[in-house]
């Protein structure tokens, strides 16, 4: 029974290192792709926020220059229609 050996006794340490290294590289690549996706989403969100800010700033400017209710309604309607586009 002294001749019995386990699979770990015969395992090549380099094989273990290579498998661990490959898994680590795969995890790093996955994290990099995830970070790239977050960056893309953040840029799209920031662009949308800037667009909304510009749109509503223009509405405020038009509303302060308007001296009638129909003019204010028209400015608001145009703003909302631009937002939908």
Please give a structural write-up.
The chain has helices at residues 7-10, 13-65, 69-84. Helix 2 (13-65) runs antiparallel to helix 3. The model has no long low-confidence stretch (mean pLDDT 84). It has one domain. It is built from 3 helices and no strands. It is an all-alpha fold and 85 residues long. The protein starts with 6 loop residues before the first helix and ends with a helix. The relative contact order is 0.06. The protein is rod-shaped. Helix content is 86%, strand content 0%.
Note the topology.
Blueprint: H1 7-10, H2 13-65, H3 69-84
Helix pairs in contact: 2-3
Largest pleated sheet: none
Question: How many helical elements?
Answer: 3
Shape: rod-shaped
Strand content: under 5%
Mean pLDDT rating: 84
Offer a quick outline of the entry.
The chain is mainly alpha-helical and 85 residues long. The chain is built from 3 helices and no strands. The protein is 86% helix and 0% strand.
Task: Describe this protein with a few key phrases.
85 residues, mainly alpha, 0% strand
């Amino acid at each position: 029974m002294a001749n019995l050996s386990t699979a770990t006794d015969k395992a090549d340490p380099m094989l273990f290192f290579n498998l661990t290294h490959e898994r680590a590289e795969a995890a790093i690549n996955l994290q990099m792709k995830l970070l790239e996706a977050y960056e893309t989403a953040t840029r799209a969100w920031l662009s949308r926020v800037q667009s909304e800010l510009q749109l509503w700033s223009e509405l405020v400017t038009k509303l302060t220059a308007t001296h009638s209710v129909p003019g204010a309604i028209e400015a608001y309607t145009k703003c909302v229609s631009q937002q939908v586009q």
